[in-house]
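Summary: Need help interpreting a holo structure output

Steps to reproduce:
1. Submit the protein chain below together with the SMILES for zinc ion.
2. Request a joint structure prediction with the ligand placed.
3. Inspect the structure token block that comes back.

Expected: a single structure record containing both the chain and the bound molecule.
Actual: see attached output.

Input attached:
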Amino acid sequence: MSFLRTEGIVVREVSTGEADKIITLLTKGQGRVSALVKGGRRPRSRLSAASQVLCYGDWVLYRGRDLYSVNSCDVIEPFYEIRNDVVKLTYAAHFTDILMELIQENQPSPGLLKLLLNSLHMLAKTEKNPDLITCIFELRATSIAGYAPHVQSCMNCGAAPEKTYSFSFRECGFLCDRTDCVERDGSAVLLSSGASRAIQHIVYAPMKELFGFGLSQEVLQELARVTGRYLRERLERDFTKLHFLKSI
Ligand SMILES: [Zn+2]
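--- attached output ---
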């Protein structure tokens, strides 16, 4: 029998059979993995707590004929603060929705998993504005997945920092205010200097400094329009989990 031992986080659970469930894990070594939890819906099952959404642990799975089954799990971080708060849980669902799109089976994605864990940590354990965490997550996740926009300088002429930039969704990056640069994409969105700097930071900062900045409400809204649209256009789909928050 072949075993797989890996760290991973539960991002989905679906009931099956009388008392079982199938969970989807985002793992360090194997990308996305589905696994059966025998008896996982029985309250006294030793795996019922571990197999709930957002539980991060060290898993031992064994490979059945068509599906892995969970053998054991040592819980590393259950993220209770998020699970018990419907608003935080909605943000977390948005993050995992995006990663379900970006991480395939058998495609190890340690960078994306680390980004998710750090974002959940910020959401669970700090007072950081969840909308800012969301902007950071959206743009950094698309960048790690290979869709990083060119934002170090103007894409057309190479002009750097002190210039005023626009963000071109069509060309995927910054354009400066020189006439021939502006003309490259007339539909590019003009940015404040605060939003430009935030975008550069999110794309290029080392992971440990990624969340180390704040923004005014106005600049945050501007940033959110860019990161949300960039995500939608690059991945060619809408992510609707956060719409729920606007309706309550
Ligand atoms: Zn330029």
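--- end attachment ---

Reviewer comment: The first helix runs from residue 80 to 83. Helices lie at 80-83, 86-102, 110-125, 130-147, 179-182, 193-204, 217-235, 243-246.
Status: needs-info
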